[in-house]
Design a protein that fits this description.
The complex is a heterodimer of chains A (939) and B (299).
Chain A (H helix, E strand, L loop, with lengths): L4 H6 L1 H61 L2 H11 L4 H22 L1 E2 L2 E2 L1 E8 L4 E6 L17 E3 L4 E10 L2 E11 L9 E2 L6 E7 L4 E3 L24 E2 L10 E8 L4 E8 H5 L5 H87 L4 E6 L4 E4 L1 H7 L3 H4 L13 H15 L1 E9 L5 E12 L5 E10 L1 H15 L9 H18 L3 E8 L2 H8 L1 H18 L5 E6 L2 E6 L7 H20 L2 E3 L2 E3 L3 E8 L6 H17 L5 E3 L2 H22 L4 E9 L4 E9 L10 H11 L2 H20 L8 E6 L1 H5 L3 H12 L6 E5 L8 H14 L2 E7 L6 H6 L4 E4 L1 H5 L5 H17 L2 E5 L4 H10 L3 E3 L9 H13 L20
Parallel strand pairs in A: 24-25, 27-28, 28-29, 29-30, 30-31, 31-32, 32-33
Antiparallel strand pairs in A: 1-2, 3-4, 3-7, 5-6, 6-7, 8-9, 9-10, 9-13, 11-12, 12-13, 14-15, 14-18, 16-17, 17-18, 19-21, 19-24, 20-21, 22-23, 26-27, 26-33
Chain B lengths: L1 H22 L5 H7 L1 E7 L12 H13 L2 E7 L4 H6 L2 E5 L2 E5 L8 E2 L7 H4 L2 E10 L1 E6 L13 H12 L3 E4 L18 E4 L9 H6 L5 E5 H10 L4 E6 L4 E8 L3 H17 L1 H9 L3 H4 L1 H8 L1
Parallel strand pairs in B: 1-2, 1-5, 8-9, 8-10
Antiparallel strand pairs in B: 3-4, 6-12, 7-10, 7-11
Helix pairs in contact in B: 3-9
The chains are: A alpha+beta (939), B alpha/beta (299).
Chain lengths: 939, 299
């Protein structure tokens, strides 16, 4: 659009300024172009100069290579090599050729010069084997390394300041050596130019390698002041302003021109002022142009500012008016905002309250639909809502219950009382909790824990009640379990001692009130321990369970059968139906006898038929004058009496029993003391063969108890086994027996006698048994082949493998084994075959009636036949008459022991007996007079 | 032209003979200075006297003449007549005896031409201090089946080994020179000696050898050094035939002053380095051949 004339007149200053600006810009651009061209020309000249200078250096280096190549192919070298090849000796031929070469080299050194200065330092001719043939000049032949097949470019050695050239020497196309020339590197300084002026001048120098060495033309030495290591890293063939912290680099241009074929760079430093003369930099023209442009812009800006000022004045007046109006509007708006803000706050509060209420409702709804049965009633306990759990619990649907009273669920016997109590407490305190019985739709009464919580309205009155029925079944089960664990025996399910005692106390009170009698029966299964040890705990447990069941069947509903542990049962008979003691005792005895009869019936223990007997002690009571502990103690003592009387019996408590128990405790204490004092004696009962020869003896335990009557042998062993004294007692007996054997070994009459020592099952199972036997034999020096251990069937069948292993070890030492009391226990052919025994011993109970009782005779015959079958010897004990001996001898039994031959006797009489026996063979045994207490002297 | 017109053709020859017999004779130092000229008798041999107007001995004698303040004149001769040209008498050697016979024109004052000091020569001539070393070598063409000897512990062993190489092979020799087989015990021992008679120039020995005139040849070291460069690859040195020899400048027995003056001059140029420059100029490589000689001289 072409401005009209009036517009141009209005803006004539701006038009003039624009024209002036265009004019100045054209001038500035022209100046700038000129400056650029001038600088380009200068740069090109500097590049060309440096390239030429570099070419001169390259030519010089190339000439060095050519020179070495020429020398390598020189006539003198060839003549030398030819004559050498002809075999001419160094002394009479080759030395002349060497002289020619030396002369050639020397002349070359003298001839080669650069700008009038000789630069060749050294020329050498080296054979390929490393031998220097000719070396002329100063210095030495440079290191050649691998002889090159072609001439190598000059090698710069900055340390020695030399240029080294290696040229191969061939003779008949075979590489035979090399010519090595060494030139002075500093000679290259002759090729450089340097000029100084105020602006910095013009400098050329050669950078060697990484720039750590340099050559300047000023003198042929390194000029480190001039050299900046970074110069070596400048881009090649590009003029660059020199940048360095070193003095003298300001305003300098740097140009690095690499020397081809050598680690050298020609470095040119020229002052910018000298290079470009007085030519200002091109940017100067731009600066000049910038000034009028700035003036123009300022003029334009000023004009616009002026116009804006006028406009602002108008705008200010208008805005002042509007501000006034706006102020009025703002006041009104502020009031409106305040009002709205108050409304919003109120709304926000209500919203928050509503959210909280909703959340509470959700929580309440979730809680209401919990896993516990809940109902909500009004203030009059009429049902408003029930939850799903309560519906499932009660069997009612919700619509069946709404509006009904909660009394509908009441299943309490004392309906009016508890329900009324609940209602009263709820209305009074707003809460109640306790166990109730909930009646379901089907009529069942379910135990539940009820909590009642009142809901208050705004006035604080109870508007609703929330009733929650908690499930008590798990808690009931836990309580029952605890009760069972606390008061009942886990194995048999019978009440334990605690319940028994409690019920006994109740019975006492009842007896006192009714003037009647009650009784405590202490029932102990005979030989239970033996069964447990031999047949295993499983069968023992089975026996206990079955026996418990039988006991329960023997008593009435009001009576209590309890288990105290092990095989001990205690029966509480609460009502004996008699007010006098005789009638009560009779009734108790009847029940006890019934128990013995029931227990004695065969029991099937997992296919194993077993007969068990029981011993029962009875203690009567009719008031609470006796302590429970005493009562139990009396029953126990009575039971013990039944045991000692031969088991399978009933005994009533007698005060004399107490004395017997105390006496048994005294025996244990005395026995322990005498074992420690080694106050145990052995007597020896002879064993005689069918030829009447004394073959050995059985060691029998004697206890010379001081100040008291010696207990029976069975009692000693029982006391020892029950108290653990059997181990030290057995050790003492075995050691005494071994020493006795050693003693006998000194007498010709007794040297070959065997000595039998009894071993109990407790000993056999003891962990250190084998080791103790072995050490005792070693310590005493007894001959183990004369030792015979008599074992009974009292060991545990479940540990038969362990027993066999121990017996085998001892048997390997030479000790033999005899199975004692064979036929009286659970004799089993299966393990009899496996036991490493040498002898069977017929129990004296069979021998005693072998003449009169056909059963005993048959058993004796069977044992003898069994011994023959298994290859075992058989010995009969308890032989007292000739008839018995003759019977046994006729059946094949060859060894006998009994009063027919001799009673057990101390060691010294036995020695006399043996001596006499060895000289006089008795036709019939004459019973040895003296005390006869045969004890299973245990090892 | 003047003499032709004055005497006619027949009388010219006789006059020349008279002039030669009376006007020219060897002289001692005083006479030479009086004559103002030193006449140097030289044989074209190796680089001692090259035949082109220069040579080791030529330059040395020129210097000597300059030191005497007289002019210099080179008179060429050969090995057969060189002594006669100095002494005016011919040399006869028979059964080890040396006799001078006859009367001949004396053509020069001094023999300097790589002249070997041999005992028989010393009996009739005065020799200066040694000017150069030499040795006679046995040469063979490169293609010869003979292999050069290995350096022994001393020269005598090397000589013995070298002579054993000759055997029945033909040997090129030049009598009355340093290559005379009689000087080295090679006559009468069955060696097939081929006497080179076409020329008295020792420089022709190698070309003759390469021309097949003999299987082997004797050659002195100065010649050998030149020929090894000249005929490199075509000849080979088999070993030494002689001990190291000494070359010297020879004077008439009646010219001791002249000899002494020469010795003084010789010491002077050795001290100044001029001698070494002459050696390197004409015999490059000879120093390595005779290191002891030149070490002594330069020292």
């Amino acid at each position: 659009m072409i401005p009209n004339r009036q517009s141009l007149l209005l803006h004539w200053p701006l038009a003039m300024a624009s024209g002036f600006l265009v004019f100045v810009l054209v001038l500035a651009w022209t100046l700038y172009s000129t400056q650029v061209q001038l600088r380009s020309a200068t740069d090109a000249r500097l590049l060309a100069d440096s390239a030429r200078r570099a070419a001169v250096v390259e030519d010089f280096l190339s000439e060095q290579e050519k020179l070495a190549t020429q020398l390598a192919g020189s006539h003198e070298i060839e003549a030398y090599l030819t004559n050498e090849a002809l075999g001419m000796s160094p002394r009479y031929g080759l030395n002349a050729n060497i002289g020619f070469i030396e002369q050639r080299f020397q002349k070359t050194i003298e001839r080669m010069s650069l700008r009038g200065d000789a630069f060749l330092r050294h020329i050498g001719f080296v054979k390929r084997d490393g031998a220097a043939v000719v070396a002329v000049g100063d210095g030495s032949i440079p290191e050649i390394g691998d002889f090159p097949p072609i001439s190598q470019p000059p090698r710069i050695n900055p340390r020695a300041w030399t240029i080294e050239v290696i040229a191969p020497v061939f003779f008949k196309d075979v590489l035979v050596g090399a010519i090595a020339t060494t030139a002075d590197l500093k000679a290259l300084s002759r090729l450089l130019i340097e000029a100084d002026d105020r602006a910095g001048g013009y400098h050329e120098f050669l950078l060697i390698g990484d720039g750590s060495h340099a050559l300047s033309p000023r003198d042929a030495s390194a000029n480190f002041d001039l050299v900046e290591r970074s110069l070596a890293e400048l881009p090649a063939n590009r003029l660059t302003p020199a940048v360095s912290e070193r003095k003298g680099f300001d305003g300098m241009l740097a140009l690095r021109t690499p020397i081809k074929g050598a680690p050298l760079s020609l470095m040119t430093l020229a002052s910018e002022a000298a290079a470009y003369g007085g030519v200002a930099p091109p940017a100067y023209a731009l600066y000049l142009a910038a000034f009028p442009a700035a003036l123009f812009l300022m003029a334009v800006g000023f004009e616009r500012q002026r116009r804006r000022t006028a406009q602002l004045k108008n705008d200010y007046a208008e805005s002042d008016r509007r501000r006034h109006e706006l102020s009025q509007h703002n006041d009104a708006l502020s009031e409106e905002i305040a009002l709205r803000k108050a409304l919003e706050d109120d709304l926000r509060r209500k919203t928050r309250a509503l959210k909280e209420t909703n959340a509470d409702l959700r929580i309440a709804a979730t809680a209401f639909e919990s896993q516990e049965g809940m109902i909500v009633t009004d203030a009059h306990h009429r049902i408003l809502r029930i939850n799903r759990t309560f519906a499932e619990l009660s069997g009612y649907r919700a619509d069946e219950l709404v509006g009904k009273s909660t009394a509908l669920f009441n299943a309490q016997d004392d309906t009016s009382n508890l329900y009324a109590e609940i209602l009263a407490a709820s209305e009074l305190s707003g809460r109640w909790q306790g166990e109730v019985r909930l009646r379901t739709k089907r009529g069942a009464a379910i135990a539940r824990w009820l909590t009642v919580s009142a809901v208050q309205d705004d006035s604080g009155a109870h508007s609703h009640y929330v009733k929650t029925y908690y499930d008590l079944s798990e808690r009931k089960e836990a309580e029952a379990k605890i009760r069972e664990l606390a008061f009942y025996d886990q194995l048999t399910g019978l009440p334990n001692r605690t319940i028994l005692v409690e019920r006994a106390r109740q019975a006492m009170a009842q007896c006192r009130a009714l003037k009647t009698y009650a009784a405590l029966l202490f029932v102990d299964l005979d030989q239970f321990k033996r069964l447990n040890d031999t047949l295993g705990h499983h069968k023992g447990d089975l026996l206990l369970k079955q026996s418990a069941a039988r006991l329960i069947r023997c008593v009435g509903d009001g009576d209590t059968v309890s288990r105290f542990g092990g095989d001990e049962f205690v029966v509480l008979l609460t009502d004996l139906g008699a007010s006098d003691v005789a009638g009560a005792a009779l009734q108790a005895e009847t029940i006890a006898e019934n128990i013995i009869a029931r227990i004695a019936e065969p029991q099937n223990l997992d296919g194993h038929s077993f007969r068990c007997t029981a011993s029962i002690g009875v203690a009567l009571f009719h008031d609470d004058g006796q302590g429970m502990d005493d009562l139990l103690k009396w029953a126990d003592m009575a039971m013990y009496e039944a045991k000692t009387s031969g088991r399978n019996a009933v005994r009533f408590f007698d005060p004399t029993m107490q004395r017997l128990v105390e006496a048994r405790a005294a025996i244990e204490a005395d026995l322990r003391e005498d074992i420690a004092r080694n106050n145990i004696l052995l007597h020896y009962q002879p064993q005689v063969d069918d030829q009447g020869r004394l073959v050995g003896a059985e060691a029998l335990l004697r206890w010379p108890r001081a100040g008291g009557q010696a207990p029976s042998p069975v009692e000693i062993i029982e006391v020892a086994e029950s108290s653990g004294l059997i181990i030290p007692l057995g050790d003492g007996v075995f050691e005494a027996a071994c020493r006795q054997l050693v003693e006998w070994a000194r007498s010709p009459a007794m040297a070959g006698l065997t000595l039998a020592v009894n071993v109990s099952g407790v000993q056999l199972h003891h962990p250190g048994f084998v080791e103790r036997v072995r050490k005792t034999v070693q310590r005493t020096g007894a001959d183990p082949r004369l030792l015979k251990l008599e074992v009974t069937e009292s060991f545990e069948i479940s540990r038969i493998e362990e027993v066999i292993a121990k017996m085998t070890v001892l048997r390997n030492l030479g000790i033999r084994f005899s199975l004692d009391d064979f036929g009286t226990g659970y004799s089993s052919l299966s393990y009899l075959k496996r036991l490493p025994i040498d002898q069977l011993k017929i129990d004296k109970s069979f021998v005693r009636d072998v003449i009169s009782d056909p059963n005993d005779a048959a058993i004796a015959e069977t044992i003898i036949a069994l011994g023959e079958t298994l290859g075992l010897s058989v010995i009969a004990e308890g032989v007292e008459t000739e008839e018995q001996r003759a019977f046994l001898a006729d059946r094949g039994c060859r060894v006998y022991q009994g009063f027919l031959f001799a009673r057990p006797m101390p060691a010294e009489p036995f020695a006399q007996f043996a001596t006499l026996f060895s000289r006089v063979k008795p036709e019939t045994g004459s019973p040895h007079q003296g005390s006869h207490l045969r004890s299973s002297a245990c090892l | 032209m003047f003499w032709k017109r004055l005497l006619g053709r027949r009388h010219g020859v006789a006059l020349a003979a008279v002039l030669a017999s009376t006007a020219v004779s060897a002289a001692d130092l005083a006479e030479i200075k009086a004559n103002g000229e030193l006449r140097h008798i030289g044989i074209r041999y190796a680089n001692f006297v090259t035949g082109t107007g220069d040579g080791f001995d030529v330059e040395m004698m020129q210097g000597f003449a300059r030191s005497l303040g007289v002019s210099y004149k080179l008179v060429y001769s050969d090995f057969y007549t060189v002594i006669r040209d100095l002494l005016g008498k011919d040399v006869q050697r028979k059964n080890g005896d040396v006799t001078l016979t006859g009367a001949f024109p004396v053509k020069g004052d001094v023999i300097a031409t790589g002249f070997t000091m041999l005992p028989w020569r010393e009996s009739i001539l005065l020799f200066s201090e040694p000017t150069f070393p030499s040795q006679v070598l046995l040469m063979a063409p490169a293609e010869s089946d003979l292999q050069p000897i290995k350096d022994g512990s001393d020269v005598s062993e090397d000589i013995k080994a070298t002579k054993q190489l000759i055997g029945s092979r033909s040997l090129l020799v030049m009598e009355r020179t340093c290559l005379d087989p009689a000087n080295y015990g090679l006559t009468g021992v069955g060696v097939d000696l081929k006497k080179y008679t076409k020329s008295a120039n020792l420089n022709e020995m190698i070309p003759a050898l390469l021309n097949g005139e003999a299987q082997l040849a004797l050659l002195d070291v100065p010649d050998a050094i030149l020929d090894l460069r000249k005929w490199a690859g075509r000849i080979k040195v088999l070993g030494p035939i002689s001990e190291q020899q000494t070359l010297a400048t020879a004077f008439p027995k009646d010219a001791p002053e002249l000899r002494d003056a020469f010795n003084a001059y010789l010491r002077e140029i050795k001290a100044s380095g001029d001698y070494d420059r002459l050696v390197d100029k004409y015999y490059p490589g000879i120093r390595l051949y005779f290191p002891q000689f030149f070490a002594a001289k330069t020292n």
